[in-house]
Amino acid sequence: MNKLEEFLEWGGTKKDITCLVLSGIALLISIFDILPLPFDAAWAAIILCGVPIILEAIVGLVTAFDIKADVLVSIALIASIIIGEDFAAGEVAFIMQLGGLLEELTVARARAGIEKLVKLTPQSARIITNGKERIVTADEVKIGDIIRVLPGETIPVDGIIRSGQTSVNQAVMTGESLPVDKGIGDEVSSGTVNQFGSFDMEALKVGEDSSIQRMIRLVQSADAGKAKIVGLADRWATWIVITALSAAFLTWLITGEIIRSVTILVVFCPCALVLATPTAIMAAIGNATKHGFLVKEGDALERLASVSKFAFDKTGTLTFGTPQVTAVEGFGMSPEIVYSLTASAELRSEHPLGKAVVKCYRENNSDISPVQEFKMLPGRGVYAVSDGKSIIAGNSELISENGIAITAEAFDKAKEYLMNGCTIIYVAVDKIFAGFIVLSDTVRPESANMIEKIKQSGVTPVLLTGDNKNTAETIAKKLGIDEFKAECLPEDKLNYIDSSQSLGLQICMTGDGINDAPALKKAYVGIAMGGIGSDIAVDAADIALVNDDISELPHLFSLSKKMMVTIKHNLTFSMVLNFIAIVLAITGILNPVVGALVHNAGSVFVIINSALLLNWKTKSGGGVG
Predict the structure, then answer these.
(1) Helix (H), strand (E) counts: the chain
(2) pLDDT the model gives residue 621
(3) Rounded to whole angstroms, how far apart are CA atoms 618 and 454?
(4) In terms of Cα–Cα distance, which of 55, 216, 79, 187 is closest to 592?
(5) What pLDDT, on a 0 to 100 scale, did the predictor assign at position 120?
(6) Above 90 in pLDDT, residue 54?
């Protein structure tokens, strides 16, 4: 796509630009009287730019009695023509259309990043049936189908790799610049790109349930028109129309000069006022998109600016949400050997803790010894034989059932870990207790710094978790969170938010799981972890954090504050400019031509001021800058 096509895609059609170019040339001919024409060249601008405005105003009035900016603009255009101020009419029409084009450019550029997702929707898939390939459309793929993906192809649906090794470019979903290695058992998302090896995958989420389609739905629901403050500007526009007509009529009665009345109508157009909010909101949404957020509700950023507390779920939000081996303790056997034998025993295990042991061991060790025997013991652990040694790995009950004694020293040591919310896998080798493996959900490295920046912004962080009190207290202390609620069921989180908001404290809830959905929906603002979060949580939230990088949350909060400052500046500027222009018009200092220039320059200023939000960044401290 070349630059011209990108420009057209951002802001308008060839027709819009052609009309503006021709109108601009016509206005230059009119003001400098370049060509001896039998009519004023400004009429080209009136027809090309003004007629569409008038028609839109008439349609709005007739179909919905919708009194907005275009109504007053149309009245000003017609009045200017009646008194022979053709150039003023053409100028108003031209600048209004130019302002509209600039607004579209701002909005289109703001949404350009997320709209790319729509174009990344896979069109076809290669299904394997009885060893034979057949190409079908992506819509025909069903859950359970086996799909083959070749290097360079876009993954058509969400699924899990059943055979093959590869690297996947997940930038569209996670923002990661480097490809991620994938193998058997790893999940892959639709819209991401297979880079190197080929693989076969089983379809798990298809059609509208796939990741790329979910993101598209979020894009389509991003609508600045829902913002409450936009509705306020619209209501003001209605009263401005009535006030403008009244002022113009009274001025004509008192002075007898119709040109002053027409000038009032020209400068009274509430264009800048109506543009002030939606342009700022969409530019802020575009900025948020660059930082990994998809804003589902237009007024979400407006609401976020006024929250007083940030409530966080723990698992999957402040932590990674997956168990990690954090310690290995040996008693009568070295920790290294205990770890190695446990990884061998868990090699065939389907239990999440067993898989976590194997995964963590492989991160730092190349080989795991194969097992000669293996038995899964549901609810207790596993039994295996590896390198001639019989291994039992599981809970303390499994160890006791086999007549193996756990030493008092080991129990005391394990108790310390359990008090901090860790999980223990006890290990016995050849009927003798050998030690234990410690697993826990690890805190994201960026969590502590993020919480500190939130506090610096004057907002109180709160931890809401289903974990026990000891675990909640440990995590809260580690992250610098003073207020926490432990052992929370979904209704407990919802009740906390409900009771807080009933006291006038607006809450922003951040979570990832199905159990967080009620709280996300109830909160003044809900932010879901879009990468690892459940579909239900994402649907319930106002904003989705696509790449799960919670370090960006302070930027989002500061951006919402900056957006509101920009909106207030826009509104103040537009109203002050209108007031000054009206006074000058009533006193006869401004004529319709100059009035149009002054007034519409305000609209252009508002759009440019809003566009500055697209690349706005927080200061190093995390506050509004």
Answers:
(1) 23, 22
(2) 46
(3) 13
(4) 79
(5) 57
(6) no
612 CB-near residues (< 8 Å, 6+ apart): 283, 566
CB 497 within 8 A of CB 525: no
Given a cut of 60, whether residue 119 has pLDDT beyond it is no
Element (H, E) at 168: strand 166-169
Q: Among all residues, which ones are annotated catalytic?
A: 313
* Strand partners for 384: 374, 391
- Mean confidence (pLDDT) of the chain: 83
Looking at residue 267, its pLDDT comes to 78
Sheet (strand 158-163) strand order:
132-137, 124-129, 146-149, 199-205, 158-163, 187-188
Distance CA 204, CA 187 (A): 9
For the whole model, what pTM was predicted?
0.67
Name the CA radius of gyration of the chain, rounded. Answer: 32
CB 559 within 8 A of CB 276: no
* Alpha-carbon span 89 to 93, nearest angstrom: 6
Report CA dihedral (154, 158, 163, 168) to the nearest 10 degrees: 40
- Contact assessment for residue 102 and residue 609, using Cβ atoms and an 8 Å cutoff: no
- Residue 105 token pair: 């450019």
> For the chain, what percent of residues have pLDDT higher than 90?
33
The answer to whether 224 touches 282, Cβ cutoff 8 Å, is: yes
The pair of three-digit structure tokens given for residue 227, joined into one six-digit string:
């913002």
Q: Compute, in degrees rounded to 10, the torsion defined by CA atoms 379, 380, 385, 390.
A: -170
In 165-270, which residue ranges form alpha helices assigned H by DSSP?
171-174, 211-221, 228-255, 258-267
**Pairing of the two strands 483-485 and 146-149:** unpaired
**Alpha-carbon torsion angle 401, 406, 408, 411, nearest 10:** -90
Place of tokens 């350009």: 112
Tell me the pLDDT band of 210, cut-offs 50, 70 and 90. Answer: confident
Q: Which residues contact 152 (CB under 8 A, 6 or more apart)?
A: 193, 194, 195
Residue corresponding to tokens 């290995």: 328
**Of 237, 264, 267, 259, the residue nearest 602 (C-alpha):** 267
What's the per-residue H, E or C state across 432-487? EEEEEEEEEEEECCCHHHHHHHHHHCCCEEEEECCCCHHHHHHHHHHHCCCEEECC
| Secondary structure string (H, E, C) spanning 318-338 | HEEEEEEEEEEEECCCCHHHH
Per-residue pLDDT tens digits for 362-374: 988 878 999 999 9
AA letter at 458: G
CA-to-CA separations, 539 to 35, 403, 513, 516, 533, in angstroms, rounded: 61, 51, 11, 11, 10
pLDDT above 90 for 469 = no
Those residues with Cβ within 8 angstroms of residue 44's Cβ, 6 or more apart along the chain or in another chain: 22, 23, 25, 26, 90
- Whether residue 107 is predicted with pLDDT greater than 80 in this model: the reply is no
Q: How far is CA 128 from CA 148, 324, 570, in A?
A: 7, 36, 58
Mean pLDDT of 487-493: 83
Residue found under tokens 């790449």: 547
DSSP code string of 519-560: HHHHSSEEEEETTTS-HHHHHH-SEEETT--GGGHHHHHHHH
What is the average per-residue pLDDT within 337-355?
Answer: 90
Question: Residue 199 phi/psi, 5° resolution?
Answer: -155, 160
- In this predicted model, what pLDDT tens digit does every residue of 240-256 receive, in sequence order? 778 888 888 999 999 88
pLDDT at res. 8: 43
